[in-house]
Amino acid sequence: xxxxxxxxLLLLLPLMILHSCSKDNDVVVxxxxxxxxxxxxxxxxxxxxxxxxxGGLDWTVENSHYNTNDENCGIYYTNQVVGExxxxxxxxxxxxxxxxxxxxxxxxxxxxxxRLPTDNDWQKLEQALGxxxxxxxxxxxxxxxxxxxxxxxxxxxxxxxxxxxxxxxxSSSFSTHYMWLxxxxxxxxxxxxxxxxxxxxxxxxxxxxxxxxxxxxIHNMLSVRFVRxxx
Length: 231
Fold this sequence. Notes:
- With 231 residues, the protein is α+β, with helices and mostly antiparallel strands.
- It has one domain.
- The chain contains six helices and twelve strands.
- It has helices spanning 2-26, 86-97, 103-108, 119-128, 133-136, 146-151; strands spanning 37-41, 48-54, 57-60, 73-74, 100-101, 140-142, 164-167, 178-181, 184-192, 198-205, 211-217, 227-229.
- The strands form four sheets. The chain has a four-stranded antiparallel β-sheet. The protein has a four-stranded antiparallel β-sheet with strand order 6-11-10-9. It has a two-stranded antiparallel sheet with strand order 4-5.
- Strand 9 and strand 10 (198-205) form a beta hairpin.
- The longest helix has 25 residues, at 2-26.
- It starts with a helix and ends with a strand.
């Protein structure tokens, strides 16, 4: 009997996965546009960021491109070969996805007049995109279509969140600590958990319309966006 139940479960599992995916695909994504938009230039390196406004906050559209020139900032190396031209990696990843930072580096990268968004800032953005306050404050995957909105470009919501992967500080892999480029996007908040060893983050996934909220080790390296109160 136990074997029969296990056999049935194994048969049903792919159907369950397909049903879950189809439910996500069936979600209708509304058209939402920013309340305002503009651009700003980081005087430290001359890089120009564009921004969009939601819920009284201006959000940068590009991932942070500021190089802190220390161990708190990293490049997602797609091929960690000894002697490789690091400029090639820079062109492949930084130009498209920006740098990755641990939490200290994320705070260091912030240009004058802006800040690293708090967990509450992210919740305000998610609510401006239609997520309920209760969902926004929950852990794990939340919302229904906000993840899709966050990745839209100029013709849509304009936030352009990217799947820039991350650097896993605790990874035991012999090949690389860099993971999930083009599949997941991980973004810091400035908010830490009670013991301050963990920081709250947001994660998006290439085949999901939801947004993940949880914590991660503050030494992991993630992508960064900047925010300011609407000017």
